[in-house]
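Consider the following input, taken from an annotated entry for Outer membrane receptor protein involved in Fe transport (Hoylesella shahii DSM 15611 = JCM 12083).
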Amino acid sequence: MNKCISTLLFFTLCIAANAQNDSTATRTLGEVVVNAKGQIETAEKAVLTPTTLEKRHATNGFELLNVMQTPELDVSPRTNSISTKGGGQVVLCINGMEVLPEDVSTLRASNIISIEYIRTPSGKYAGKAALLNFIIKQMSYGGNVYLSASEGFAYKNGDYLAFTDFTKKQLTLSVAVSADWKHDHSHIEGHDLFRFADNSTLANSYSTDHSLRKQNSQSARFRLSHMGNKHQFVSYLNLTRQAEPSVETVTNNQYTGKYNLATTRTTTTNGKNLAPTLYANYVVWLPRKQTIDVSGSVEWGNNSYNSTNNETAQANITSKAVERNIAVNTSAQYSKSLNGSTTLSASLWHDHNYYKDTYTGTTEGQQRLTTNQTGALAQLSGSGQKHSYYISAGLSNTAVSLNNLHYNYCVPMAFYGGNYAFNDRQALSLNGYLTHTMFDPSNKNDMTVPTSFFQAVKGNHDLALIKVFGNTLTFNAQWGKSKASIFYNNYIYFKNIAHIFTADASTIYDMRVNDGTFYGNMLGVSYALSAFADKLRLDVTALEEYNVMRGNTYNMQRNVFRLRTSLAYLAGDWMFSLLYQTPRTDLDIREPFLIHMQPVYEMAINWNYKAWAVEFALSNVFSQFDKQHITMDYGHYNRNSWRYNEPKGRNINLKITYSIGYGKTKQRGDMELNKNINSAIIKGF
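Applying the prediction step yields:
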């Protein structure tokens, strides 16, 4: 397999070198004119221009990007997600305004003029892997209506969305409502071995007799925006509700060793979350090329979680948690252009989070967690005819209070990046960062919650931040109807957070701790080809990973190769597509464990006609579940389990979309449905 990726690298580099010699003599940067090419490289960004054929076979922004085959991006229209092929986070914008994936999923493809792809985003987006800015048609008055419904017939689920907006002059009002539901039969089976502090052992062979998780969520957002010649104001009220009305798992267990008995274990849980959010952003453009950008948000959360564990011949374990939380986020940025090519900017932000959790049942207690994160960055950026760069540096201070314990973390931050366009077909970019990531608030906890008669989840009040250092180097080239991208990712997690299992004479404890360093390396080659009057589209991506964990508890490494290929054919109003991804065994650093994953098969048939679009999709039809084998020796816990994942197994989906626009021109407003829930509750199941 290593020979495969080496061959692809050699082939791509040779072709790219020839492409450079063919194009430099006839093309310049500066003001770009598109001549039968869908991607133009400039000093600061790549400009992607969709063709009439591509717009004809796409309903929204995600579908259009998928048809356009940008080799650096991994686009999934069915899950409304987008990332770089290396797994990096991509910021989404529409006409320069940041939006969420739901916005792009309702952005009509016919309204998109071009897409700006920035590989080294700066400013408040520094540290992100990339930024996509959809340039769409402006309007003086009018609006849009978007309706979609998706139904799953194997894995039972549904997703529904209704959106409308209206613009008159500079004022836009939009309303969006969504709902979804899932019935998930995923379960776990396996053979585990536990070692207690007195050197006794307990083996457990278990299989699932019944498992069903019911989930649903609803969101509504009301948004008002005003776009002036020298200012921009955006505000919205978002309401989100999530619920798990019923989760039940029945497991048959056979214990040997310390205890010799056969049991039936029934676990039931339920929970609900409610989170209203109020957001506002104001941008003003001042004389002498100055800009001030101020934003703020307030979110209030009300969360509850209940669980019961009933096992044969054992006492019942119950837990009830009620949480009240509040999050306040504020930020301000000032920038000034010193001359035509250099810009100086400064930014400040403060994020406040407060959680109050009350636990009753088998374990009782109360937790109060407060985090206050304050940061400041200064940035210098510039550009020339063929190059652009940015350098930013600053400090971040995080103050944490857990009950009567207080912690303070002050860490430096730095972000940097640059892009060089050899010509309008080839570019080289570097994106780097030195920063930190916050811990999950549910893991910084003083509580110990039992999960069985010999197991418990234990919070860690000493959990600290993870320091992260990373770099991504990317080379892109085009020739004829071909596109290629070669990239290398390197990242280091200092004080990586992982599970540690400890034991006394009767209980095994699972706790998250900062332990050791993780080193990640990824080399990737992606190639895209259009043929037969651009009706046949081929995309192939090869990835080679070498990951290492070094610490007091874990010393392990893993080399992984995977190949992903897709093929699409566009015929009239129809599009037929296939996707295949090879099986692999990954090192999951979050647990950690080794996980073997099955191959992925997907097929889709799309029909687009005027305002209507229909998609019929099949994936992994050979099995109801995606079977994943997980192995790991944690010392006191030797895991050997099989996870049967239904959402990633057999899927048969039908999606119907209706979208229209009216008015002088066709522009839709911005929709931001936020379905995330903020919570610090520690859960046993």
